[in-house]
Amino acid sequence: MNENEAYKTGLAVRKKVLGEAYVNGAMANMNAFTEPLQQFVTEHAWGNVWTRPGLDLKTRSMLNLGILIASNRPHELKIHLKGAIHNGVTKEEMVEIFLQCGVYVGAPAAVESFKIAQEVFKEMDAEKKAG
Length: 131
Description:
This protein has 131 residues and is mainly alpha-helical. The protein has two domains: 1-52; 55-131, AhpD-like, CATH 1.20.1290.10. It contains seven helices and no strands. It has helices at 5-18, 20-28, 35-49, 57-70, 74-86, 91-104, 107-130. Helix 4 packs antiparallel against helix 5, helix 4 (57-70) packs parallel to helix 6 (91-104) and helix 5 packs across helix 7. The chain is globular.
């Protein structure tokens, strides 16, 4: 792994948004085949884009939710819902994001988003009670 400055910065932001446990798990599951992907995502997405000064992390998370809904990426949506909560996106704001996507992407996308969000909320509540 090339731990250049963008990678180091990206890793810190990635852990801040998605949680240290998730990122450490992704890194622990890395192998020779997936290492280039982890390098790319951490360095470019997290180190070069998420750290730009034009938008705060909350706004970036809100955009991500809409993009992931529109591109039908339920697994990534689940991960980024947790990140959005860490970045201060409220459930009320999520409702508005999901409804907005429902109008422009389609009702099935909104329905699926509400379903996934409820699963995430339940998981996070269980984690709080356990920990």
